[in-house]
Description:
- By secondary structure, the chain is an alpha+beta fold.
- Helices cover about 30% and strands about 30% of the residues.
- The protein has one domain (about 5-80).
- The radius of gyration is 15 Å and the shape is elongated.
Amino acid sequence: MKKLVEVKQYVEVEIDETKFTEDFMKEFRNVFYNFHDIEDHIMHLAQLHCRGIVDNYSFIEGYGEAKEMGIKFNITDLETSII
Length: 83
């Protein structure tokens, strides 16, 4: 048997906005992704967390230690359904 399953995770992402200075944003764009606002970073961090790549205690490439950047994750809900 094979089924296609849709999984939706809802993750709350908290960051310390003061760490996302214009210098940080410019350097991040030069090395990683062409992100121009905080929301781009929040969405990126959320998907990394949902994929199990990072958590509240991780070193996150491009950001450093989650705790030092004020980055926190919290899964608030999870939905699954067979499509």
